[in-house]
Amino acid sequence: MKAIAQDPYGTADGLELRDIDRPVPRDDEVLIQVRAAGVDPSILHLMTGKPYIARLALGLRRPKNPVRGWDVAGVVETVGAKVTGFAPGDEVFGSGDGSLAEYTRARADKLAPKPGNLSFEQAAALPVSGVTAYQAFSGKARPRPGQRVLVIGASGGVGSYAVQLAVSYGAEVTAVCGPGAADFVRSLGASGVIDYTSQEITDSEHRFDVVLDTAGNRPLSLLRRVLTPKGILLMAGGEDAGDWVGGLGRQLRGYALSPFLAQTLSSVIAVVRAEDLLALKGLAEDGTITPAVDRVYPLSEGVAAIRHLETGHPRGKIVVTV
Fold it and tell me: Which residue positions in the chain have pLDDT lower than 50?
């Protein structure tokens, strides 16, 4: 089968479209014929092997799986011996192990039936980013009607879902994005926009009950200044601590400070689960959220899709079709 793969960790120059063996699903897995795959920042971490601490799971010297990608939407080809609830021919979406390929395998508990009103391209844009935003706004961090929410990185994959979810919960959302994305984030429901190239978030006249930071390049001290006295900071990503621990450095500092503050400083480490995919399926089918697809590439141009992610500041998600 064809797949976007690499051998050693490195830059996008090491990625290539190549022929590899079709994966064989384990007993608790499903083999999926991929129709579309999402491209999100986690692919860059898989590609570079950074932060280095992630190699404990990904492979110390080289990736355990050379194929990149997680987000997938497609059709079930075969099911493992212990899988129930799925059968060949079912249309599904979720998280697979190496989705930038003609086939991928996925654990059954990381899949759900594809939303009936979404195309394969839209469904492939939903799993990882949608689950991250959904899990971020869970529990006590779920915005309440009338609260003010700040979404940093609002035009990206996670941010675009976060804006829609916060608005659906009745919050007033201010979106932080780059130049030219104001109309896009307003179309998602944001009532206020901060262009980070000309303003800092501290320029806002408001303080926020919930701040979701998907960009990860602002210090905790600055983020705390825009929170209400008992506000909640949610950190999804971040690269300020260098190659070894990446965004974990800032998140660990937040955890260390939080017990001594009235504010809550927490991180968002999303895990794709079938129950959350089913919740997103319902939200998509009733029109609460709509995947924003920035650009679609064929699998033959999958490397170009990843380069666009690196440099293009996409609005929403990039998708590769197979």
Answer: none
Longest CA–CA separation in the chain, Å: 58
Residue 296 and residue 321: Cα distance in Å, rounded?
7
* Residue 191: predicted pLDDT: 97
DSSP string of 28-50?
TEEEEEEEEEEE-THHHHHHHT-
Question: Model's pTM, two decimal places?
Answer: 0.94
What CATH superfamily is the domain 2-126+291-321? Medium-chain alcohol dehydrogenases, catalytic domain (3.90.180.10)
pLDDT value of residue 133: 98
Tell me which amino acid residue 316 is.
G
As given in the structure block, the two tokens for residue 258 are: 């939080």
Report the pLDDT value the prediction gives residue 313, as an integer from 0 to 100.
82
**CATH topology for the 130-267 domain:** Rossmann fold (3.40.50)
Backbone dihedral region of 89: left (phi > 0), alpha (psi from -120 to 50 degrees) or beta? left
